[in-house]
Amino acid sequence: MTAGAPHPGTWALKGAVLAYQYTLRPVLGCNCRFYPSCSDYALEALGTHGALRGAWFAGRRILRCNPWHPGGYDPVPLSPGAGAAIQPVPKG
Amino acid sequence: MDQKRLLVAIAASIGILLLFDMFNRPARDAQRAQQQQAAQVQQPAPTPGPPGPLRAPTDASPAAGEPRTPAARLPVEGPRVEGTLSLRGARLDDLVLRNYHETVDRNSPLVRILAPREGSAPYYAQWGWTATDGRTKVPANDTDWTVDAGARLTPATPVTLRWDNGEGQLFEIALTLDENYLVTAEQRVRNTAAEPVQLLPWARVRRESTPPTQGFYILHEGFVGVLDGRLREATYATAKSDGAKANGVALDQETGAGWAGFTDKYWLAALSPANPAIRTRTAFRHVSDAGPRGPEDRWQVDMAATSPISVANGATSVLGTRLFAGAKEVKLLDAYRDNLGIPDFDKAIDFGWFYFLTKPFFYALDWLFLLIGNFGVAILIFTVALKAAFFPLANKAYKSMSRMKILGPKMTEIRERHKEDPAKAQQEMMALYKTEKINPASGCLPILIQIPVFFALYKVLFVTIEMRHAPFFGWIHDLSAPDPTNLFNLFGLIPYDPTQLTHYLHMPAWALIMGATMFFQQKLNPQPPDPIQAKIFQWMPIIFTFMLASFPAGLVIYWSWNNLLSIAQQRYIMSLEAKRGGGKPAPAAPALAKPKKG
């Protein structure tokens, strides 16, 4: 998976996330404990890491997004291999 | 710019959907009306000729014009079914269900499951043989079978149909009826001629018109069966297109224990081998016949021996099959599965992918129904129980809310600082939540877990027969039908039915209640950060009110109740937190997640 490659799997997954954002999300409301929200995170992760790694990051993010996790600012890891390390909060 | 275009695209798609539905609906209604009308008008019998299993020649009967005596009929009477079997052709083609009426009115006609060829919607079961040696005379559609004088097929009195072909072969069909919807047939041939004969015994269920279907994505209607442990489903449309590629055969499979037939929303007619240990060959078929009004579709499910059977002099060949023709009652299907070894027979009910949830949900609902006596109330109680099960998840999230107040000033400060950049403000607030170890939202995972659960409940309510003709309070007499009241004639104050004009002029009371509860429930939810999504968010209650107007009332009531419970739950938790914090509830969740308004 090269970053940003127009892989059909990536497009399909991105489409699914977008479809969620415009149909289900308005019904369910926004309950994400993170910034960016899980769906935005998924879109970004798919864009920068491709279908496989992107889906992996997004899946782990959703699993983290539960009441037992503090949540907070959690951007998509930049370099592949950086894992899901939470980056220091930038000073405003 | 992009957003504007997207908004237009969404509006256009919704418009297309509505338009499609509008054009489609009258056609569907017309089709239904036409079929009902035609059912009353006696029609000339369609020319026989469609193929039986493996192109059985049984349908090739002599000239139809030849005057004949009317066919003798064998009465069929069980506790839950009644009808007749046509002794000409050995067709069970007249069967009604004694416990089910067509409408809520107790005096309305009984639901008809099987209907004769002379009517407009022929639907029957038939047992027969194909002569694979090409010379043995086998029973045909015009064969008059004999029974003992005064015979009646009841659970206490089995009946045997007999026919002697005059060439040394005696054909017999021994029929037994159980207390519910099951007919067991044993087809026997005794050969007294010197030469052995080659025969293929078969049983079939045949439908000579396309039934009106509900047309909902979440409900399967059409061909259905479990063959070698696999659920096989085909709608009439897919069977037609699959059949077109393979000479009318949409599916042809040799299988061990299994069953196959036609399913409607609530009714089923299906075949299964009487001995689960034998193998049979099962097929789904479609053919087009020239009818008086153009080509007519014929649908058939048949079950035959896997290969022709050679019957030597003095020998008897036997094939036993069961025919289920009745209502898809979960417990009854389960009992047949367990007692008769019909595998996965309960899958005739479209429990769907979430079978592991929908099936137990059904049993829980049914238990409540038996306890309370009203299916609507059972739905309400069950929904409360589900909500209670998820309560800890929701409550945990709100535990931290009392600490919000301490952070109040900091929050305002962040919002002030990033008035121009709401995304930035939200980002900083999330960081604050993290350092202070609080968070007002419950998270995506709990929501994702709840989606299949509530979808499963929705699905159960949609497919089970228990909701059919089940009353609720007030004006709801049938939970499975749309709420009959209508805002557009002021709930009956104006003596006019606006739905005659267009289907969209139907806005029942319960749909309005649903819309209102959804609106208030959304008020408590944080809005999406994206402005377009926020717009859609605001429109959702209105869209859903219109969408659910034509849905079964039971589902709309469930949905309203679910919304009400969500509101109550959120209010309760907030008040709990307020007490714990010793002050008024924090304006918390919704306000915080709406940084733009800050």
TrEMBL record, chain A:
Protein keywords: Cell membrane, Membrane
Name of a matching Pfam family: YidD
Topology versus the membrane: Peripheral membrane protein
SMART domains recorded: Haemolytic (SM01234)
Domain of life according to the entry: Bacteria
Membrane as UniProt keyword: yes
Compartments, as annotated in UniProt: Cell membrane
PANTHER family: MEMBRANE PROTEIN INSERTION EFFICIENCY FACTOR-RELATED
Protein family (similarity comment): Belongs to the UPF0161 family.
Function: Could be involved in insertion of integral membrane proteins into the membrane.
Annotated protein name in UniProt: Putative membrane protein insertion efficiency factor
Native source organism of the sequence: Paeniroseomonas aquatica
TrEMBL record, chain B:
Segments forming domain Membrane insertase YidC/Oxa/ALB C-terminal: 375-574
Family note: Belongs to the OXA1/ALB3/YidC family. Type 1 subfamily.
InterPro entries: Membr_insert_YidC, Membr_insert_YidC_N, YidC/ALB3/OXA1/COX18, YidC/Oxa/ALB_C, YidC_ALB_C, YidC_periplasmic_sf
Keyword Metal-binding attached: no
Oligomer status and interactors: Interacts with the Sec translocase complex via SecD. Specifically interacts with transmembrane segments of nascent integral membrane proteins during membrane integration.
Coiled coil feature spans: none
Keywords: Cell membrane, Chaperone, Membrane, Protein transport, Transmembrane, Transmembrane helix, Transport
Membrane insertase YidC N-terminal domain span: 73-363
Gene3D superfamilies in the record: 2.70.98.90
UniProt feature, compositional bias: Pro residues: 45-54
UniProt function note: Required for the insertion and/or proper folding and/or complex formation of integral membrane proteins into the membrane. Involved in integration of membrane proteins that insert both dependently and independently of the Sec translocase complex, as well as at least some lipoproteins. Aids folding of multispanning membrane proteins.
Keyword GTP-binding attributed: no
Main location: membrane
Location in the cell: Cell inner membrane; Cell membrane
Pfam families according to UniProt: 60KD_IMP, YidC_periplas
CDD domains (UniProt xref): 5TM_YidC_Alb3, EcYidC-like_peri
Name under which the protein is recorded: Membrane protein insertase YidC
